[in-house]
Amino acid sequence: MKLLLDKIKELQHKLSVQQHVDSYRLLHGRGRCFEGFEFVNVDFFQPVLLLVFYKEPPTGWLDELTAYLSDKLSEQLSCVLVQRRYLVNAPSEIVMGEMPEKVFARRGNLLFNLHLNAQQNSGYFLDMESGRQWIENHVRGKRVLNLFAYTCAFSVVAVAAGADKVVNVDMSSPALNLGRANHQLNNFPKDKTEYVAENILKSWSRVKKPGPYDVVIIDPPSYQKGSFIAEKDYAKVIRRLPELMPNGGLVLACLNAPELSDEFLRQQFEEQLPDAEFIERLSAHPDFPDVNPGQQLKLLVYRVPRFQIESA
């Protein structure tokens, strides 16, 4: 418990000197780098502390923690929320305080709507920070295609960083509606973004139409039955890149599948688009250490060359 209490003390200090604290992961137990904490991740979305359990915590562990938080952080924390991923449907439970009517992820001056108590995924993935930093540095003045956009957090960062236009594609209309709301929340001009609710693998003409693109972000689910299975479908996306970016550009290829290595992703590019140049694998964010780096989130950057389109 001492390790987590020390991290909570660090949070307490941040809250004492900053009015707003960026959302971050206090403890990444699932990376198995902290003995005795393998069952839990702890995230902070001001003013909510989120505990995600992957198995039942030791007897008395949660009571001890909430007693400490109630004593030390009751004024700064509105709520402590527990999500039990080891149970069917990953139910959530408020164990301290009350959930605010609205909760946001914060990244500098940017805000992102969250639905912490509604479903398994919050709507904002803290482990993607290395990807967001890369986007921030590479999209100014560019036309960006955000594939598998979900709630469009990449798009929010891209627009803030000066992207000329971002086209967000996802098969879920509700997710894209949240994405649109995220842009409105940050007071971005409507003409900077476009939202396409389509099954990407079945709608390439619709995806291609707003192009050509200078930067393409590929961030699919690793396994979503009936829509996308990375092991067999990632190649289909890579194969389409010449049509989407005939003038060449940069690709951020993401894969969050511990069972698939970055070598798997590199092989897909070698087989489907051998002319693409591998640039780098982005380092995992320091908040997400893992005893097996090969299982971490994969963020690979490629440069796609300009393609000579032959006329009929």
From TrEMBL:
Q: Which residues form a coiled coil?
A: none
**PANTHER family registered for this protein in UniProt:** RIBOSOMAL RNA LARGE SUBUNIT METHYLTRANSFERASE YWBD-RELATED, SAM-DEPENDENT METHYLTRANSFERASE
The Swiss-Prot or TrEMBL record annotates one GO molecular function as: methyltransferase activity
Per UniProt, residues of the S-adenosylmethionine-dependent methyltransferase domain are 25-303
Q: Which Pfam families match?
A: Methyltrans_SAM
* Descriptive protein name: Methyltransferase
* Keyword list, A-Z: Methyltransferase, rRNA processing, S-adenosyl-L-methionine, Transferase
* InterPro entries recorded: SAM-dep_methyl-trfase, SAM-dependent_MTases_sf
Annotated GO biological processes are: methylation
